[in-house]
Every structure is written in structure tokens, then in C-alpha cells.
Amino acid sequence: MRTFPEDFEDRGQLVTVVVRTDYSDNVAWRRVRAALDNTGPTFVIEGPEWDGATVDEVLEASAPHAVLAVVFIADAQTMSSAEYPLLAVASITPDHDDYEETIWNGRDFRTLPRASHEIHRGLELLTDAFASLASVAHSHPGVVFRGRQFSGRGPAGAKPSA
Predict the structure, then answer these.
(1) Main-chain dihedrals φ then ψ at residue 13, nearest 5 degrees
(2) DSSP classification of residue 86
(3) What string of pLDDT tens digits covers the 162 residues of the chain?
(4) Ramachandran quadrant class, 102 (left: phi over 0; alpha: psi -120 to 50; beta: rest)
(5) Closest Cα to residue 83, out of 44, 110, 120?
(6) CA 123 to chain centre
(7) Which residues pair with 88 in a beta bridge?
(8) How many C-alpha atoms does 150 have within 13 Å on its Cβ side?
């Protein structure tokens, strides 16, 4: 069974968590890391034991720890796409009261690495809802969340008032 590192709990509340599950392209990974590092603090979980891990395996490994609103996964699609979109996954479980409301638009969506911190902060500070962010992602080209600057939308995917 895969597990998160021992220092995971020391990462800080507003630190974005990224799990690398694909090791096919180290150049692509360096570009993903550079984009992440330029936008905010990131706790990266990587190593040969994570190669090929599924979304469910990543969520299972996160379960014993303090609840995360979202986990980002750098998978094969991340490494092979020109924009390196991470997979943003809601870490809520079916036994949670808000499960259906949270995942009504899917339990995951793609996001540019530079927008991952915006997503994480909004969910952790309760200024955004996962389903609303997924909806915004579905409205963007390539079904990839690109951030509010791209969409012109405010909190929770709402259009700004005139």
C-alpha cells in the first residue's frame, strides 16, 4: 500500500498537494514543477512507489491524514499534453454529507499547474465549491481550468456583477 510521507502533516494548510504518478518524461515534469513553484508553495509526493498509481490509490493514501479538499495528480496525460494539465480530484468520500453536492459535476477535472494554487486556496478557505470550479473547467477550451483571469469569473465560478 502506498502512503504519504511522514512530514506530510507539517506542510501547512494552504500548501497545494501534488502527487506524481507518471515518470515517462522528466523534462515535462521539470516544466510542471517550475509552473507550480512560480505560483505558490507546493508539497510534492513522488517516488518510484507512486509510478502508475490510480486516482483511487492516491485518495486511499490521503485518507489517514487531515482532510484535504483537493489533491492534484501529475499523471500520463499531464506529462504528454502541451499545457501539462494536472488532474484536480475532490478528496471527499461517499460517506460525507456533502458528497453528492460536491461531485455533481464530476469528482475531477483538469487544471493548468499555475491555477492549482488558486483552486486549493479557494477550497481550503471555503470561498469556492469544487462543483463550481469543475463547471468553470468545462466551459474553458480543452475542458481545462485556466484560472479566473482567463474566465473573467469571480468566486465559485460566478460571473462578475456589472
Answers:
(1) -65, -40
(2) E
(3) 899 998 998 888 889 999 999 999 999 999 999 999 998 999 999 999 999 999 999 999 998 877 788 999 999 999 999 999 999 999 877 777 887 778 777 889 999 999 999 999 999 998 999 899 999 998 888 889 998 765 444 444 433 333
(4) alpha
(5) 110
(6) 11
(7) 72, 109
(8) 15
Domains and CATH numbers, the chain: 6-157 (3.40.50.800)
Taking a C-beta distance cutoff of 8 angstroms, is the pair 58, 87 a contact? no
Exposed / middle / buried, residue 59 (Cβ in 10 Å: 0-12, 13-18, 19+): buried
| DSSP state for residue 158 in the 8-state scheme | P
List Cβ neighbours of 39 (8 Å cut-off, separation of 6 or more): 113, 114, 116, 117, 118
Say what the pTM is.
Answer: 0.88
Q: What values do phi and psi take at 101, rounded to 5?
A: -65, -35
Amino acid residing at 56: D
